[in-house]
Amino acid sequence: MTERRGDHLWRPYTQMKLAVAPLEAVATSGSRITLADGRALIDGIASWWTAVHGYNHPHIRDAVSNQLQRMPHVMFGGLTHAPAEKLAARLAALLPGDLNHVFFTDSGSVAVEVALKMAVQLWLNRGVSGRTRVLAFRGGYHGDTMGAMSACDPDEGMHRRFGAYLPSQVFCDLPRTAAPEAALDAAMAAHRHELAAVIVEPLVQGAGGMLMHPPEVLATIARLSRRHGLPLIADEIFTGFGRTGSLFACEQAGVVPDIVCLSKALTGGTMALAATVATSEIFSQFWSDDPAHALMHGPTFMANPLACAAANASLDLFEAEPRLAQAEAIGARLDEGLAPLRKKPGIADVRVLGAIGVVQFAGTPDLAVLKQKFVERGVWVRPFGDIVYLTPALTIPEGDLDRLIAAVCDIAAAPEGR
Ligand SMILES: *Cc1c(COP(=O)(O)O)cnc(C)c1O
């Protein structure tokens, strides 16, 4: 059944005329999504990588409902509140180095916009003009708003359609194995007077195709950025909060970026919240007697207390429960379980990092057919492009994880319509 013209909802990345009707979810719990028709699906992707502790975790639910009784929201201009103060201090303590200054927003894309604006404005504050572009990497994804979109992969992203509308950025290939510095070094040198910053998704480019690079490559990018005096923005919106096996992906490379973007799992998948976190050095460029040197941003729902309460509760769980060990255990099981696919015809690659398992097809499968087959197997995964991937809740029970792996193995080995 396709959606009808009279439906009121306009859905994400969806050709409304051709799309099959979405499934109706009525409840979630742990790793399960219950549908209106009574079926339960095992969620293999934790609602776009957000629900790290599983759905409806009682600790987060209680924190949000307590906050709801007291103060669901209050403006952040001229006022402050304990949930935001506490969360900012905790994030600063958890992040490496002196990433100490936290600017809250309400979505990942906006966190990236703020990071880009911060980078551009810090040059203006220094009295340097013309530094308005960023160096970004092919294969990257940074969000759907204008600045974020302009830093996404120039071919797969939305450049082809929106090119004329977007700011023009400098794109480089992201080395996948060793880290040949020359090309990157040359690009930074060639554009040195117009670049404001470098932006990268550390270790895994998520929505661009779950493309991975080793920590040494990230370390090289950080070293070159420093050498050229360019702030490094680490977009940890996908990788943050344990997904790659460490709390933040940058830690694996020993890299302290100048600016970090966080969102997705920040509230444990409960509420919309994002943060752009800067080092003391970046913050000091805005610290001035000149009001015009203030960071020029301020969303209406900035630091929403409900969302901050959810995020604080999520951090409690990271402290109290062994999430990183769970990510490692999931990774080991994904590695072992998906390995047989490596030998199957039609499979180009199988890769695992932390609690991310990716199967890449040699050709482009019929995604609609694939999605349908997964639902029939009782699992919820969202293949895109030429991949199908698993990024389950870090708390997923072993039995559920095994069912996800078995479904991916069976269906990827024989995806009709490929
Ligand atoms: C999802 C994502 C974004 C955008 O976040 P939204 O909350 O969807 O705006 C940006 N960068 C990365 C790496 C992401 O995975």
Automatic annotation (TrEMBL):
<comment type="pathway">
    <text>Cofactor biosynthesis; biotin biosynthesis; 7,8-diaminononanoate from 8-amino-7-oxononanoate (SAM route): step 1/1.</text>
</comment>
<comment type="function">
    <text>Catalyzes the transfer of the alpha-amino group from S-adenosyl-L-methionine (SAM) to 7-keto-8-aminopelargonic acid (KAPA) to form 7,8-diaminopelargonic acid (DAPA). It is the only aminotransferase known to utilize SAM as an amino donor.</text>
</comment>
<keyword id="KW-0808">Transferase</keyword>
<keyword id="KW-0032">Aminotransferase</keyword>
<dbReference type="InterPro" id="IPR005815">
    <property type="entry name" value="BioA"/>
</dbReference>
<feature type="modified residue" description="N6-(pyridoxal phosphate)lysine">
    <location>
        <position position="264"/>
    </location>
</feature>
<dbReference type="InterPro" id="IPR015421">
    <property type="entry name" value="PyrdxlP-dep_Trfase_major"/>
</dbReference>
<dbReference type="GO" id="GO:0008483">
    <property type="term" value="F:transaminase activity"/>
</dbReference>
<dbReference type="Pfam" id="PF00202">
    <property type="entry name" value="Aminotran_3"/>
</dbReference>
<feature type="binding site">
    <location>
        <begin position="299"/>
        <end position="300"/>
    </location>
    <ligand>
        <name>pyridoxal 5'-phosphate</name>
    </ligand>
</feature>
<keyword id="KW-0663">Pyridoxal phosphate</keyword>
<feature type="binding site">
    <location>
        <position position="141"/>
    </location>
    <ligand>
        <name>substrate</name>
    </ligand>
</feature>
<dbReference type="InterPro" id="IPR049704">
    <property type="entry name" value="Aminotrans_3_PPA_site"/>
</dbReference>
<protein>
    <recommendedName>
        <fullName>Adenosylmethionine-8-amino-7-oxononanoate aminotransferase</fullName>
        <ecNumber>2.6.1.62</ecNumber>
    </recommendedName>
</protein>
<feature type="binding site">
    <location>
        <position position="298"/>
    </location>
    <ligand>
        <name>substrate</name>
    </ligand>
</feature>
<keyword id="KW-0963">Cytoplasm</keyword>
<dbReference type="InterPro" id="IPR015424">
    <property type="entry name" value="PyrdxlP-dep_Trfase"/>
</dbReference>
<comment type="similarity">
    <text>Belongs to the class-III pyridoxal-phosphate-dependent aminotransferase family. BioA subfamily.</text>
</comment>
<dbReference type="InterPro" id="IPR015422">
    <property type="entry name" value="PyrdxlP-dep_Trfase_small"/>
</dbReference>
<feature type="binding site">
    <location>
        <position position="235"/>
    </location>
    <ligand>
        <name>pyridoxal 5'-phosphate</name>
    </ligand>
</feature>
<feature type="site" description="Participates in the substrate recognition with KAPA and in a stacking interaction with the adenine ring of SAM">
    <location>
        <position position="13"/>
    </location>
</feature>
<feature type="binding site">
    <location>
        <position position="382"/>
    </location>
    <ligand>
        <name>substrate</name>
    </ligand>
</feature>
<feature type="binding site">
    <location>
        <position position="264"/>
    </location>
    <ligand>
        <name>substrate</name>
    </ligand>
</feature>
<keyword id="KW-0093">Biotin biosynthesis</keyword>
<dbReference type="InterPro" id="IPR005814">
    <property type="entry name" value="Aminotrans_3"/>
</dbReference>
<comment type="subunit">
    <text>Homodimer.</text>
</comment>
<feature type="binding site">
    <location>
        <begin position="108"/>
        <end position="109"/>
    </location>
    <ligand>
        <name>pyridoxal 5'-phosphate</name>
    </ligand>
</feature>
<keyword id="KW-0949">S-adenosyl-L-methionine</keyword>
<feature type="binding site">
    <location>
        <position position="48"/>
    </location>
    <ligand>
        <name>substrate</name>
    </ligand>
</feature>
